[in-house]
Amino acid sequence: MDDPFRFADELGPLKLVHIWRPALGLKAVVAVDNLACGPAIGGVRMAPDVSAEEAFRLARAMTLKNAAAGLPHGGGKSVIVGDPKMPAGDKERLIRGFAAAIADLVDYIPGPDMGTDELAMGWVKDETGRALGLPRELGGIPLDEIGATGFGLAAAIEVAAERLEMPLAGARVAVQGFGSVGKHAARFLAQQGAVLVAASDSGGTLADEDGLDVAALIALKAAGRRLADHRRGQKLGGDAIIDIPCDIWIPAARPDVVHAGNVARLRTRLVAQGANIPCTEQAEAALAARGVLVLPDFIANAGGVICAAVEHRGGTEAAALAMIDEKIRGNTRAVLDRVAVDAVLPRAAAIDLARSRIERAMRTRRWEH
Ligand code: NAD
Q: What is the 178 CA–ligand 1 centroid distance (Å)?
């Protein structure tokens, strides 16, 4: 059996909780990584192929993201093994069962992630009394509906594009994963004149170098259809999104999609990480060596968690968007300044920024560390 402490380092994880309810068919893992800045917040992911390692790595990304964003929260994450498209009744039963199992894990506040949504957070709140990213009717700011993460990603891209002296008007964008993050990033960038030349979902890639109609694709997805069902554009395999020549490439689906084996195929100037940990370390180094700027996930995709933290304090949607804009632009500038001065990788600059905040918080704590 694997050593359960194989992930442990000076930051965490403080708790790695395995949940198994045979009668429900519930298999889940919660990683509470670090609590120095405050109670952990982080999403609940449902996918058929998730693992404890994925939970830990995503929780660590949340520790760094929350600290980088200057939020009074630590990092956590949970993964539930299951097909998110299972029948609605089965999904509610599984998520309620998961919520009941974490009722006592009071230093972890769940939010939505891949495969879960505002409604699911409503069930979690009903079972445990705590959840973020709630439906509007429960006092939430529905971050996926308003596109909080896509909005922040577009703000980070705008800052990076200025540094690259690349006008957004006319910039060619390719998006892998046309869900909450990907479709809203495409929408906000299109508002600035950027052109969506390709997008992919789990059914494949849709490409059109003359530009895809973002609003039509969003409507298609809202109707439960696949991008491949769109009447225009070239229909390609899922992996083809990697090969699309573009100025801005946005991973907004799964981890480790860009790795040593395919990084040479990317032809872009900027990789803006909407997904968490979408590139391996080797791939990020290879991109930097080729002069491709990579905006690290926990700086660029913090919009959702900033929105959730504003919701937690009873703030409004307008306040959340203003805070996302201010914090993400400020952090992106800080990271790019450090990269320009010290010639470090953007991720290293971002980690230093976050770690220095966590270490200062840890010095104020007695037992947590
Ligand atoms: P989502 O479930 O709304 O959308 C995911 C999209 O990816 C869907 O269109 C799906 O069809 C597609 N997809 C799945 N597997 C794919 C594959 N192999 N190739 C291409 N497309 C694929 O999820 P989301 O909320 O948009 O999250 C996407 C990523 O962004 C995840 O890594 C998540 O952790 C991260 N993230 C989300 C938020 C948020 O606010 N929702 C915030 C920060 C980070």
A: 7
